[in-house]
């Protein structure tokens, strides 16, 4: 499996994906700078505006749309390499190849998470003041990453099955449904809602970006372990199901 992961990683080493990992987190952080500049001092605690805006946007915009784009790039790169025709000609299991692709996408999203954390820290140290909320920054970023992993096999399946159009439509639908259902009791059934919903108690904000009142049920931290457990179980199940589909697919 290590060899497969290394081979998959090398495929994307000289592609646009590495720039996407760097530029997308920076874009979200830069977007948060402008409200910080125009909002009067004392309106929010020094670091809150930057962290809340970046992580809120990251969870409901980058996760669905960014993962859809990642899956398209992975699939298009494979098409240029022969449209999976080499799968049948090698001794490596198609399931192992599929799992390798999912792992590499997860690693790339993890790298993007590290870039996001660093960018938030740098921008906060320049624009904010006071103690750095390390726990909130690190836990928030990695919670989003962990609870979004189940979306990777879904998006990769859609991209491999129906191409760029299907993948981007799925990403847009995930964005709309994820935001709409995150504050409702149905969030647990929507993978795109998981990172958004867990940001409510971690950041103390509604998915619409408004600060939550102290008595809001969305502040309950009981959803955090539930969301993480469901996410880990889902990524295993979705990976297995899509890998079996990939094994049976007819190479065109």
From TrEMBL:
**Transmembrane segments annotated in the record for this chain:** 20-39, 54-74, 95-128, 134-154, 161-180, 223-246
Pfam families (alphabetical): ABC2_membrane_4
| UniProt keyword list | Membrane, Transmembrane, Transmembrane helix
- Identification of the protein by name: Lantibiotic protection ABC transporter permease subunit, MutE/EpiE family
> What is the scientific name of the source organism?
Clostridium pasteurianum DSM 525 = ATCC 6013
Taxonomic lineage is: Bacteria, Bacillati, Bacillota, Clostridia, Eubacteriales
């Amino acid at each position: 499996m290590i060899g497969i992961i290394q081979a998959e990683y090398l495929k994307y080493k000289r592609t646009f994906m590495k720039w996407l990992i760097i530029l997308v987190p920076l874009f979200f952080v830069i977007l948060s700078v402008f409200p910080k500049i125009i909002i009067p001092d004392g309106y929010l605690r020094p670091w809150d505006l930057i962290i809340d805006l970046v992580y809120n946007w990251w969870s409901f915009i980058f996760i669905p749309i960014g993962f859809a784009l990642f899956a398209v790039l992975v699939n298009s790169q494979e098409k240029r390499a022969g449209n999976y025709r080499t799968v049948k000609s090698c001794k490596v299991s198609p399931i192992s190849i599929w799992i390798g692709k999912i792992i590499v996408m997860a690693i790339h999203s993890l790298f993007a998470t590290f870039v996001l954390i660093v960018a938030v820290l740098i921008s906060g140290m320049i624009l904010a003041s006071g103690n750095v909320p390390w726990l909130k920054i690190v836990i928030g970023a990695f919670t989003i990453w962990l609870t979004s992993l189940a979306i990777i096999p879904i998006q990769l399946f859609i991209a491999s099955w129906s191409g760029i159009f299907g993948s981007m439509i799925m990403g847009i639908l995930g964005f709309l449904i994820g935001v709409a259902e995150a504050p409702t009791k149905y969030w647990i059934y929507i993978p795109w809602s998981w990172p958004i919903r867990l940001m409510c108690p971690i950041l103390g904000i509604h998915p619409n970006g408004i600060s939550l009142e102290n008595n809001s049920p969305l502040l309950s931290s009981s959803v955090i372990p539930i969301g993480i457990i469901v996410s880990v179980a889902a990524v295993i199940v979705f990976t297995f199901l899509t890998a079996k589909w990939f094994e049976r697919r007819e190479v065109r």
